[in-house]
Design goal:
The chain is α+β, with helices and mostly antiparallel strands and 291 residues long. The chain is built from 10 helices and 11 strands. Pathway: Amino-acid biosynthesis; L-threonine biosynthesis; L-threonine from L-aspartate: step 4/5.
C-alpha cells in the first residue's frame, strides 16, 4: 500500500497573487492499494468515481509515465475544509501524481510534480508549497515553472480563521478587473518583495506594510461576511491579515503567541460558529512511503 501525506496550502498571501504560497501544518493522508474495482472513500459520494480529483491526477501521472491506469482503492483522510481557501484541490492533485510515480517505481522529481500539477490546477501558487513545503514562489516562464523557496521566521505566529461558509473561486475571480494601472502594478511588485523579506526576517512592522494588496483583496473581501470584524480585531492587536486563496479562510499573523491567543479568544466570542485555530508552517511538503 502507498501512503501519501500532503500539507494544506495558503495561496496569494495578499500581494503575491497567483505566485506566492505557504504550506500549513494541516496534513491530508491518502492511501492507494490494488483492488478489483475502483473504490474511493473519505469524500462525498458524488466524487467516489472517476471524476474524483485524486483519481484524475493519478491518471494524469500514469499518462505522463506511459502506463495504463490500474484499478485501485483510494482512502482519503482530510481535516481540510472544502472551498475555504486552504486548497484541498492542490493536496488531491499532488497526492495523485506522487502516488502514480511511486506505484510504478518511477517517482517524479519535485520539478516534474510542479509542472504536472500546475497543468491540472492552473496556477503554481497552490501546488508548489504542497510539494516543497514552506514559503514558495512559483514563477511561470516560457520554459516552464521556476520555483523559489524561502525559510519562514520562527518568531511568526499564524492563526487560521475559517468561516462557516464557502466562497466560489469562480465567483471570486469574476469580481476582479480586467486591467490595472501602472501604479497598482508597481505597488504589487514592490510590496511582494517586502512581503517575502518580512516573512523571512520575522519583522512584523514590515509585514504589516507589505500586506497591502490592491489587486484582488479589495474586491474579494466583499464575499466574506464579517471580514471587517476580523480586520478590526487584527488592527486592535496589531496583527497582519490576508485572505487565503480566494477565501473564505483568513490568516492572521503576529510575532507573539500570546497575542495570537488573545486575538483568537476575541474572535471566538465574536464569531462563535467559525473555526479559529493556531497553525504552524509545514516545511516537509509531500511525503510518500510504502506501508
Amino acid at each position: 500500500m502507498i501512503k501519501v501525506t500532503v500539507p494544506a496550502t495558503s495561496a496569494n498571501l495578499g500581494v503575491g497573487y497567483d505566485c506566492l504560497g505557504l504550506a500549513l501544518a494541516l496534513r491530508v493522508t491518502f492511501q492507494f492499494q490494488p483492488a478489483d474495482q475502483l473504490t474511493i472513500t473519505g469524500c462525498p459520494e458524488q466524487f467516489q468515481n472517476e471524476t474524483n480529483l485524486v483519481y484524475r491526477a493519478f491518471a494524469a501521472g500514469c499518462e505522463a509515465l506511459g502506463k495504463a491506469v490500474p484499478t485501485m482503492k483510494i482512502a482519503i483522510d482530510s481535516p481540510i475544509p472544502v472551498s475555504r481557501g486552504l486548497w484541498s484541490s492542490a493536496t488531491c492533485i499532488v497526492a495523485g501524481l506522487a502516488a502514480a510515480g511511486e506505484w510504478f517505481q518511477t517517482p517524479f522529481t519535485q520539478n516534474e510534480l510542479v509542472q504536472l500539477a500546475t497543468d491540472i490546477e492552473g496556477h503554481p501558487d497552490n501546488v508548489t508549497p504542497a510539494i516543497y513545503g514552506g514559503l514558495c514562489a512559483g514563477v511561470q516562464t516560457d520554459a516552464g515553472i521556476s520555483v523559489l523557496t524561502y525559510p519562514v521566521a520562527d518568531n511568526l505566529a499564524f492563526l487560521a480563521i475559517v468561516p462557516d461558509f464557502t466562497v466560489s473561486t469562480d465567483e471570486a475571480r469574476s469580481l476582479l478587473p480586467q486591467s490595472v494601472s501602472y501604479a497598482t502594478a508597481t505597488h504589487q511588485i514592490s510590496h511582494s518583495l517586502l512581503l517575502v523579506r518580512s516573512l523571512m526576517t520575522g519583522n512584523l512592522l514590515d509585514l504589516q506594510l507589505a500586506l497591502d494588496d490592491r489587486l484582488h483583496e479589495p474586491y474579494r473581501k466583499k464575499l466574506i461576511a464579517n471580514y471587517d470584524v476580523v480586520a478590526e480585531a487584527c488592527d486592535y492587536f496589531e496583527c497582519s491579515l490576508y485572505i487565503s486563496g480566494s477565501g473564505s479562510t483568513l490568516i492572521a499573523i503576529t510575532d507573539d503567541a500570546s497575542t495570537r491567543g488573545m486575538l483568537r479568544q476575541k474572535l471566538m466570542k465574536q464569531l462563535p460558529d467559525w473555526k479559529i485555530f493556531p497553525i504552524a508552517i509545514d516545511t516537509a511538503g509531500v511525503q510518500v512511503e510504502q506501508v
